[in-house]
Amino acid sequence: MRKVWVVGGIAVGLSLSFVALLVVGVYVVAGNLAGGVGGGTVGLSKGSVPAAYHGLVQKWGNLCPAINPALLAAQLYQESGWDPEIVSHADARGIAQFIPSTWAVHGIDGNGDGKRDIWDPNDAIPSAASYDCELAEQIKGVPGDTTDNMLAAYNAGAYRVIKAGGVPAIQETRNYVKNIRVLEKSFAAPVTRVDPSRQAAAAISYAQSKLGTPYLWGGNGTADQGGRFDCSGLTKAAYESVGITLPRVANDQYNAGPHPKRDELLPGDLVFFSDDPTNARAIRHVGIYVGGGYMIDAPRPGAVIRFDPVDTPDYFGATRVTEDGAKALPASV
Length: 333
Fold this sequence. Notes:
Blueprint: H1 16-30, H2 51-60, H3 69-80, H4 100-106, H5 121-138, H6 146-156, H7 158-164, H8 171-187, H9 200-209, H10 231-240, H11 250-253, E1 270-273, E2 285-291, E3 294-297, E4 306-309, E5 315-319, H12 323-328
Antiparallel strand pairs: 1-2, 1-5, 2-3, 3-4
């Protein structure tokens, strides 16, 4: 639920033609923009890593050339969703999801307190980076991309990568490598403008068709709910209408693609709001940007789906949703 804004709104009856022209105009301008993460030192996108771990990830993500802070963040997010107390069905433990036998060999005392604690992120995050770099050294003579091969070794073991001469033909391993490399783009602070989304106009059209619909907490727009939505239910349904499946909760939707700067927003971007500007996990509201400083959102109980301004004190950031980005998100975070 977001705060009530005391602002001058745009009438719900804003015409379809205005938004259509706006989308077309912006895409003409943005058609030749370059996207992706550039070379050199990789920074972390705003708030993508919880503040408690940001310094650790930034520091240890530069331990060797095979990794970078965004890649390390993507691994940790994929493994644990930043939960330092999680235990998997295979007894993998903590924020970096080390199995105790692996930890016994590869865990390091990252904070220099004389202990190697599998549960302590100050040890586990440095250990994850150190283990990545060990694997990269083991497979350095294997043909192909070193980082891809390292990630494959992390998932399937260095022996299989060496034997296969690259990423082995194991579907789980190939998916793991692909997902981490896609998520890496979400955690990296963009150094160039981000490519526009091709599905954005249709997602906006869907959201616009719901203008005036009453808000419902937990609403997914189903018939038994009277076709009503909450904020993330609306954005999920809008992108589902173009074949992209987003997570149900706003803060989980944040990593479904790269993060454009405020002055680079394009129609179709998801825009997020939070009381904590340092932590994407604290996001509590989301809308879909339509241009001109406005979004369509389902703001709060008692209100209807409407146009609202983006530039408020609790604006957190934005995500340019991609199909690969949405698919790369872990099943539970």
